[in-house]
Amino acid sequence: QAYLSYSNIAALTHLARKSGWDITRTLDNVKIWTHEEGAVLSFKVEMRVKVPSHVAFSLLSDFRLRQRWDRHFLTCEVLQAVSEEEKIYHVTAPPTTGHKPRDFVILVSQRQPCRPQEPYTVAVRSVTLRAVPPSPEFCRSEILCAGFQIHSDGSSSCTVCYFNQVTAGVMPYLAANLTGSSKSIEDTALECIRFLE
To answer: Using an 8 Å Cβ cutoff, are 150 and 56 in contact?
Structure first.
């Protein structure tokens, strides 16, 4: 478990530090970037939020609140509180056209910064839990690496960066989006900002 938690945080930190991100869209408070490497597509959504970084961290690290702003989350329950900083959740997502609803078993690891210039981190990856085997009513999907980095911009504002390394399981939700025919990433980001503020 300690190794999984460490690698969860390390994978997100590594993804955030990659060079070669291409900006694809800019709104007032939202920027969307993509990064392609072989068959792996990653994206980053940068949001400017008028709340202190520790408040954003507290709200974003509790995934049970995610349904209040992310319509891709139908349900979310805590399966296991591994420690104060690690929880395992079961998440269900609505069906996309022609597919069954999806579900995910994820480990969410949260870390406060050790030094002032470091971000708050909320890292997410899929795990296998014997107690929750795949169910016939859902298509079990996988998250390789996702999560938030929250950088303080002063006492009353912060920049929230959401990262996701896209797998085939998440692709149906994003395909229309990245080609520009849908605005669900933008809309979700704006809902997230509204929720945090």
So the answer is: yes
191: its two tokens: 């809902």
Transcribe 137-165 into DSSP letters.
TSEE---SEEEEEEEE-SSS-EEEEEEEE
**72, amino acid identity:** H
Closest by CA to 166, choosing from 39, 57, 53, is 39
9, containing H or E segment: helix 2-17
* DSSP codes joined into one string, 171-192: HHHHHHHHTTS--HHHHHHHHH
The pTM assigned to this predicted structure is: 0.90
**Phi/psi at 3 (nearest 5 deg)?**
-65, -45
Report how far residue 63's alpha carbon sits from residue 51's, in angstroms, rounded to the nearest whole number: 19
Residue that has been written with the tokens 């209040």 in this structure:
68
Beta strand pairing call for 30-37 and 139-140: unpaired
Domain locations in the chain as residue ranges = 1-196
pLDDT digits (tens, 9 = 90+) for 138-193: 999 889 999 999 999 989 999 999 999 976 555 655 655 555 544 678 889 999 99
Rg (alpha carbons) of the chain, rounded to whole number: 16
- At 62 the three-state DSSP class reads coil
Classified as helix, coil or strand, 104 is strand
Could you confirm whether domain 1-196 is CATH 3.90.245.10?
no
